[in-house]
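User: Can you predict the 3D structure for this chain?
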Amino acid sequence: MSNLADFWSQSTNEQSQEVSRIEALSQKGRNPCILQFGAGPFNKECCECSHMYQHRSDKVYWKCDLRKHTNGAGSDHRRHWPACARFEPK
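Assistant: Here is the predicted structure, written as structure tokens:
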């Protein structure tokens, strides 16, 4: 969805699906890439994927290059989340 006008032009069912998607993205402890790209290979984790990288400042923070880097905790990525459909082995 590109803007708010698109949202209001959708049917009620499409609007509720979009709200559900946004709520799911905001839930702590869930891999947002799975919602965006779909589930990945069974029994694979993000730490095994080539898209994972370390961002270093005073600590080490894990990030996924498929997500926007926000320079904050909002883009931190858990290494042991189940992999998404864009999984690429290291």
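The longest strand covers residues 52-56. The chain has a mean pLDDT of 84.
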